[in-house]
Amino acid sequence: MRVLVVEDHRTLNALIASGLRREAMAVDTALDGLAALEQLAATRYDVMVLDRDLPGLHGDEVCRRTVAGGAGTRVLMLTAAGTVRDRVEGLGLGADDYLPKPFDFAELVARVRALGRRSTPALPPVLDNGDLTLDPNRRVASRAGRRLDLSPKEFAVLSHLLAAGGRVVSAEELLERVWDDATDPFTTTVKTTIARLRGKLGQPPAIHTVREGGYRIGER
């Protein structure tokens, strides 16, 4: 899942972003509304966590333009004002969900995940291929009944490959959907992560390399 966090409070912005990355999400950040719109124009995001009370270009306007753009990005609006009227106004702007500050981080994660499921085609609750299974909500993966100890990026790569249903997934697609803007597009991080993941999955090989294509899970 690719998420954009738009929050002008630098510390809170960093905390939300780092927490979501620990949940195996690819996260970019913006500190104001104009920067958010620039990133939305360049990258497809599943979910935007949007502070309503932004300086400069207000969060309301960011929400309006995002919805009008028709990109399908789901909007979770945050605000320090938690009255029913505020919630109604926020949802009336086109926001998909609303969370007043202060909030419990577990609830934020649950709401982001729920919106992410709405922004993409429906997937089964548990992804599987052969003896390999992955539960995105519980963040548990196993092979032949053996639980796999995966890093957040390894888990996200495996999840994306399984969700592809045998389709070949390019390194560029993995870089876009699993990593964030801070990643060098010429890096070998995808190849390195795939290599580590293969080692943890064991034999027989589950991830196949398609020459000049990318990677896929399933029979050749």
From TrEMBL:
Pfam families reported in the protein's UniProt record: Response_reg (PF00072), Trans_reg_C (PF00486)
Keywords, comma-separated and alphabetical: DNA-binding, Phosphoprotein
Response regulatory domain residues: 2-116
InterPro entries reported for this sequence: CheY-like_superfamily, OmpR/PhoB-type_DNA-bd, Sig_transdc_resp-reg_receiver, WalR-like, WH-like_DNA-bd_sf
Start and end residues of each OmpR/PhoB-type domain: 124-219
Residues annotated to bind DNA: 124-219
Annotated positions of the 4-aspartylphosphate modification: D51
Official protein name in the record: Response regulator transcription factor
Species lineage: Bacteria, Bacillati, Actinomycetota, Actinomycetes, Micromonosporales
